[in-house]
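Sync notes, pocket subgroup
Present: LS, DG
LS reminded everyone that the earlier model was apo-only. Rerun requested with heme C included. Inputs:
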Amino acid sequence: MYPVWEVPGLTAGLVLGLIAAFHMLPSHLSVGAMWLNVYLESRAERENRPELLDFVRKYSRLLLIFSYVFGSLSGVGIWFAATLAAPRAISGLIHNYVWGWATEWVFFIVEVVGIFVYVYSFDKVDRKTHIRIGWIFALGSWTTMVVIVGILTFMLTPGLWPQTGGFFDGFFNRTYWPQLFLRTGSMLVIAAAYATVIAARVYDAKVRSTVARAASVFGLGGLALGAACFFWYRASLPAHAVEIVEMLVKPGLRQGMIGSTVLLALYFGWLIVKPASARFWPALASILVLFAGIWSFERSRELIRKPWVIPNYMYSNQIIGADLPAKGVRSEIPAINERGILKTAPFVPKNLREVNDENRLQAGRMVALLECAACHSLQQGGVRSLARIAREKELDADMMEGLLYSLDQMPYMPPFAGTDPERRALAEFVAALSKGELR
Ligand code: HEC
């Protein structure tokens, strides 16, 4: 294990989650926008409406700037944050899916080159060729989604991979298809919402109406596809995940998903009926509503992976918690119970390797950092603060110690791993923390 990235109050996972949820906007915009673009461009060609091209030009410029500045930055941000938050998990993923990412990046290059060629050749090649360039871009960027969804869904439902270790056994798992089409639906919704923002900025009233209506049809279609696939996705979740949904996905997150779907459906429905009424501020508000929906969904999706970062393999605190015969990997829990976590983790300061009367609270804090901080804040407040939980449940050191024998009785937590003195040190640390005796 590596040095722990402790983010005061927030936990590293939540920082990663924020960056990843934001990344949804530019990345899905990029994948979805060109479908709308080639449709409108073909229509402008067919109906001989050059003024419609003005919109397409504006919209693809937004795509170039927003998607490729913020998309690239936040995409790299995900890698940095994930590598800091869970280096071992990232290492495990890379060892299995390096060719998956390599494949994605080939198509990613098609996408990046494609948008530049599309924007800068807008009036330099004939329309038919230009539309063809648009199609190459649209298919290339959707293919990046086809690939990355395999790796994303693997992290929730690794399929037969734990038994076979095979690339495609993990890739085409039970949540792959519903999530691919769920994301395809959301890419249409995101592209449509952005298109209404740009449409509201177009002076020509006829163009504004044409675009607002076409975008809203895309948006409403995307919502319908997304909603249908959402239920398909829910039905394909394993029993453990369903149990966690019931326990951990709070009403706020459910309302976030339902509320934003309903609001967006009303918004697109309204624009289909009265496309001339497209205005800038409501359009911008639709992006915020969209973000609330995405955040609620992505947050729930993260929650249902608990206690694992890769199910039946590695816990969120990066301890390998199950045998993986196909890869010759053994669970680390028995060895850690015997030797102690402070002796096993490589970067523990020398004076904390052994618990004694002088260092007990500090050693306890080290154990908490290694085993609990992935999900619990070690401050007085913040995400699932251990101090607050202990205060609310009135846990003293003895009760906490008792609880540590059966943490994994709760389906969302890994077991405590370590020796008796380490368990005691952790319990005393949490008790002291909750009384405000420590920082
Ligand atoms: C995989 C994430 C994860 C890890 C790692 C984890 N916990 Fe938890 N823990 C949770 C979640 C989720 C809850 C439920 C909180 C809620 O209800 O919002 C929880 C709840 C608790 C509770 C309250 C129990 C109850 O009755 O609800 C205690 C005490 C607790 N954790 C202690 C610990 C300690 C100590 C560690 C480290 C050894 C730890 N947890 C590691 C996710 C985790």
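DG: The chain has a mean pLDDT of 92.
LS: Strands lie at 308-310, 314-315.
Action: DG to write up.
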